Each structure stands twice: as C-alpha cells, then as structure tokens.
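haha ok so turns out i had the wrong file open the whole time. this is the CORRECT one, sorry everyone. sequence first:
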Amino acid sequence: STSGSSVQFFRHEGTRYGHILDPRTGFPTEKLLSATVIAPTAAEADALSTAFFVMGVENARAYCDNHPGVGAILIPPPRSGRTLEPTICGIPNEMLFFTDDTPPAPKETP
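then structure:
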C-alpha cells in the first residue's frame, strides 16, 4: 500500500496542504512525500502506509526493525539539491529492482 499527497492536496495563500492529517495536531503532515509498505495483509499495509507517512522516517524505521514481515520504502522531501533519497526499511536488497541500466522501451510499429 502507498500513501502520499501528490494527488490529493490544495493550495491556500501560496502554501500546499496535503490531505493526510497528523491526528496530534489536526494539520496536514509534511514529513514524507510517499510511504509504501509491504506487510502480511493488505489491511495492515494500508494502515501502516498512512501511519508511516505521519510518523516520518525514523519512527517508521524503528517499527520495521521491530516487526519482521513489514517493510517500507519512504520518500522524504528532497534536500536543497532537489534529489530524492528513498529510505528502505525491512526489505531485502534481492527483493528490490532499482536499476540505472533500464533497457529502452520497444519502438511501436505502424
């Protein structure tokens, strides 16, 4: 399951507000751009992706470290260089398929 605010948001007086609220403050959270979770059940993954989005990287990492079978790919806002730096928790490298040498897409024939 993935939670994020890239689609559901609004702007007010020049500020962007996402739709996921931090229940502690009642305001939209800005800790992550995206939280993707794998878990034993879809319901658990759905609940955790929203919770991780609110909790942020360090708390989500701690949860994954203490719950085998739960993994996450967390995307925090970019730093000044505007490069996204995903944080991967609880997902073995052999399950990931990131690559820089993706072959070109096949050309369409008319």
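The chain has a mean pLDDT of 86.
again sry for the mixup
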